[in-house]
Request: fold
Amino acid sequence: MNETTKVEVTRKIRRWGRSRRARLYVWFARDDDRPRTVESLLTERYTNPVTAYRKALPAIYEAAGLPTTTKAAWSQTAGCSCGCSPGFVLDLDDRSDFEAIIGKEQA
Ligand SMILES: [Zn+2]
Reply:
């Protein structure tokens, strides 16, 4: 592995729902600029490579300015009770929604 993980993180404050825990939603960047198909969007929602996401957590935390000790629990229903918005529930007592895109840095 001579590639370093590059992540982009955005943070929004959630204004709906009762949960006070922060959420983290993760995607992989695509290798090209073609628009995503509806099919791929639907598929990716339900086939999340959680193990790979976990490996990127340190880089995501660094980019987001979060403590390295932040705990992340994977939840298929993190963002919606129907399961369409899986993500990590963080042990941070705020209403942040983080969105992280994992890419590969050009060598
Ligand atoms: Zn849903």
Summary: Residues 22 and 95 are 5 Å apart (CA to CA). The helical segments are 38-46, 50-64. The chain has a mean pLDDT of 85. Residues 80, 82, 84-85 surround zinc ion (CB under 6 Å).
